[in-house]
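Morning!

As promised:
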Amino acid sequence: MEILIRPTAADVATQAARILAHYAREGATLGLATGSTPVATYQELIRMHREEGLSFAQCRAFLLDEYIGLPREHEQSYYRTIRREFTEHIDIEDANVHSPDGLLPDSDAAGRSYDEAIQQSGGVDIQLLGVGTNGHVGFNEPGSSLASPTRLKTLHPQTVKDNARFFDSADDVPRHVLTQGLGTISRARHLLLLATGEGKAPAVHALAEGPVSAHCPASILQLHPHATVIVDEAAARDLQESEYYRYADANKPSWQRH
Ligand code: F6R
């Protein structure tokens, strides 16, 4: 795992956008996350599109997850959120932005067909990830199988609490989601996880330095051949090897610099 510690959340976004821009230039298949963390990265990519001509016209995108039962046009559906925050502002074809269908009555079939669609597209080249305060990625809550496919999951009460800020009240947060599984996420060729703020510090320590375990689903990054974790100083607070990560980052061979 490559762990990059940057001074601020804005620096995390700049670095992440630089990495994603490299893939966009190749016409890659992008795996997109929602939530607060990637918003600044999306804003930087939108700026690069407007001011530097960065094009996404050859790209495809797959979202990590979707609430079950929320109409697509609901302001908080991830279908709407990713368009509002990112893809409406760049030149990717809307038909090439895919998300799990949280309205299909048979969620097992919906999960299977989403995994098939990802595979048929040639797979995800770079998967952007946030991490929950409880260590979830996508909505693979603690206890998720490390090999899981896209499927229905019940949100952890902590996640409902964390996401209540996007809704009028915690009661309005849907309790179920269709999420890419940890097996699905692991098939992406490059995993790029971002975390900012001290609320994420325990999860960052657990995912990078704790055991690989269903208790911390984000720890699957330790098993991945190409995983990059970018955190700000606040989220890096609990890392025990932070001095070594900084040293390795500063002494990277030139061909490994982003
Ligand atoms: C969102 C997702 C979640 C979030 C995580 C962190 O598509 O899959 O795993 O990445 O809950 O959310 P924020 O960034 O809001 O702290």
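The chain has eight helices and ten strands.

Hope this helps with the figure draft.
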